[in-house]
């Protein structure tokens, strides 16, 4: 689709800028959640993606992203953006560092704050991770979903998982749906209730009957 007007929505660009500061865990969870969105939830993001996808390849390269974002910054529709900031945006969206372009679902993940995400999306994303429907997510669940990615070695996932635990940093921790919602908001699990258990500590927020 040819876009004569490539003026970007500043709110979407703001979301991409903010995505740089997300924790690695939150970035991964945003990508998982992006696969649960329906077409009408991502319609506006699709328009913005097509403005940046100048050659219609379905991917955005760093030179293309620079060209579109810098042009918009010059036109005054955005605040001033430096080349270094654009490179930071690109690197943040590029979840798989071996890739040289941004794919559609990575773009959705970065712009997720501009989508109408509802409880259905959140529950589907949680269930996709909790594939055995245990009621909580484990480190193994994360590895099962992300482990096929050559960038996501066990060591890398251990670091991401540990960072999300805050001061707890338990590899054998189990994360309930309520605690998962904390991670989706960019918080660590320091604020969650920790319940010891034979299968590892359980992170939760809601009161749990013992």
Automatic annotation (TrEMBL):
One of its GO terms (molecular function) is calcium ion binding. Residues 40-75, 117-152 form the EF-hand domain. InterPro entries: EF-hand-dom_pair, EF_hand_dom. It comes from the Eukaryota. SUPFAM superfamilies: EF-hand. Transmembrane segments: none annotated. This is EF-hand domain-containing protein.
């Amino acid at each position: 689709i040819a876009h004569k007007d490539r003026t970007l929505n500043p709110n979407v660009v703001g979301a991409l800028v903010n995505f740089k500061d997300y924790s690695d865990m939150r970035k991964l969870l945003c990508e998982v959640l992006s696969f649960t969105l329906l077409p009408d939830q991502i319609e506006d993001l699709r328009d913005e993606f097509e403005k940046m996808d100048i050659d219609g390849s379905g991917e955005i390269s760093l030179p293309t992203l620079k060209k579109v974002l810098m042009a918009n910054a010059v036109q005054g529709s955005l605040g001033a953006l430096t080349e270094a900031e654009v490179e930071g945006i690109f690197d943040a969206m590029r979840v798989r560092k071996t890739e040289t372009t941004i794919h559609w679902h990575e773009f959705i993940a970065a712009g997720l704050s501009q989508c109408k995400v509802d409880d259905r999306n959140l529950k589907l994303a949680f269930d996709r991770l909790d594939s055995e429907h245990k009621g909580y997510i484990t480190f193994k669940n994360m590895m099962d979903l992300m482990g096929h990615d050559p960038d996501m070695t066990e060591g890398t996932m251990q670091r991401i998982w540990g960072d999300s635990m805050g001061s707890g940093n338990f590899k054998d921790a189990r994360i309930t749906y309520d605690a998962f919602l904390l991670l989706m908001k960019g918080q660590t699990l320091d604020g969650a209730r920790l319940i010891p258990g034979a299968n590892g500590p359980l992170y939760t927020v809601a009161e749990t009957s013992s």
